[in-house]
Amino acid sequence: MSKIKTIILLLTLSCNIYAKGIDVSEEYLFSKTQIQNHSFNDELLTSYLKSQTVLLIPGVLSQSFSSTSTQRIKIDYLIGSIFRDHEDWLIEKGINYESLEIESEASPEENKEFIIQILEELPDNIIIFTHSKGGLDTFEALVHRPDLLEKITGVITVQTPFKGAPVADAFTRNSLVKNISEWLFRFLGGSEGGILSLTTKESRLRNQKYNEDFQRIIQEIPVINYGSFKEDTFGWDTPLEIFRDYTYKKAGKSDGVVPLENSFLDNTYQVTESGVDHLNSVTNTQGVRRLTFLPQLNYKQEWTFDRKSHFQALLEVLRKVSY
User: Fold this and answer.
1) Where are the domains of the chain?
2) Helix (H, G, I), strand (E, B), or coil: what is residue 26?
3) In the chain, which residue ranges form alpha helices assigned H by DSSP?
């Protein structure tokens, strides 16, 4: 590449970074399409990952989706475990990984110590792959132990409510509903701080407090933020339809829980994908369908999502931006 082209590229990237981040959606979708069409050569990706340990950090209610947890409320028999497809692919490729069974209903402040402990125990070259609140827990840990960044290759967050979720606001606005929500989080082993951490107010305060720390993390290691949205169509088009419709009125496009724009921190690599709700990305909702006598309202097929190609494509983007 000529010096002039290099300078233009750097200026373009700098402008994009200054504005909000670097949009790598095209790179992600291209890789994902290749994977699904069996035209993707995964030798470089597999070779890259062989020297890494992938750390999977889930979000709220993750233990309820786990067949091995002792959670009081279990629904894994309905739609499977969080990260099951991700783990199957990692095992198939012989890649080292760790899947955390974290107290997902606890606050990020409470969870940071557990994540720090795991990061200390794992060998160098760690890729952190998180979903939803797991991203908040992860950044909380890295803010308090920035020295651990030396062990981390990169971070991928999927549908993390960095700027909060209006659904959480609704559950904490009314005193009666707030008390019930906080009781539920405590009943599941967490705390009231768990649900409060998802509100837009707490998120705004957290971002103001840690803005410089977050930017320091983003400057030192590649961070990919994945956000998605599910458009409203006729019928019951997502298990999260009620939440999605409510969030749309409050903040526009969302995955049913997190508004699209709230999934992104400034200056990160950013991926946007349509048609994906908050559950699709990590667990199987294909078997969840509305009880109806009208066949035309059965939208089961619209809820399928190829989580393996999604996972691989995000890892491939990380591989490319790491060099």
Assistant:
1) 26-321
2) helix
3) 3-19, 25-36, 43-50, 76-79, 84-93, 108-121, 133-144, 166-173, 175-187, 192-196, 200-220, 241-251, 307-321
Could you say which DSSP state residue 254 is in? B
Rounded CA separation 31/35 (Å): 6
Span 218-238, pLDDT tens digits: 999 999 999 999 998 877 788
Domain 26-321 falls under CATH 3.40.50.1820: yes
Q: Show Cβ contacts of residue 134 under 8 Å, excluding neighbours closer than 6 positions.
A: 57, 58, 59, 62, 102, 104, 157, 160
Q: What is the CA radius of gyration of the chain?
A: 19
Quote the crossing angle between the two packed helices 133-144 and 200-220, to the nearest 10°. Answer: 60
HSE of 78 in the Cβ direction (CA atoms, 13 Å)? 10
d(CA 43, CA 212): 37
Q: What are the pLDDT digits (tens) for 125-136?
A: 999 999 999 999
Neighbours of 108 (CB within 10 A): 23
- Check if the beta carbon of residue 126 is closer than 8 Å to that of residue 151: yes
Dihedral angle sign, alpha carbons of residues 77, 81, 84, 85: positive
What is the CB neighbour count within 10 angstroms for residue 37? 9
127-150 burial, b if ≥16 CB within 10 A, otherwise e? Answer: bbbbbbbbbbbbbbbbbeeeebee
Structure tokens at 199: 């509100």
DSSP line for 268-282: EEEEEEES--TTTTT
Which has the closest alpha carbon to 169: 247, 60, 248, 277? 247
pTM of the model as a whole: 0.85
Are 127 and 317 in contact by the 8 Å Cβ rule? The answer is no
Quick: pLDDT tens for 64-112. Answer: 455 555 554 544 444 557 898 999 999 999 999 999 988 777 889 989 9
- Residues 140, 153: Cα–Cα separation, whole Å: 17
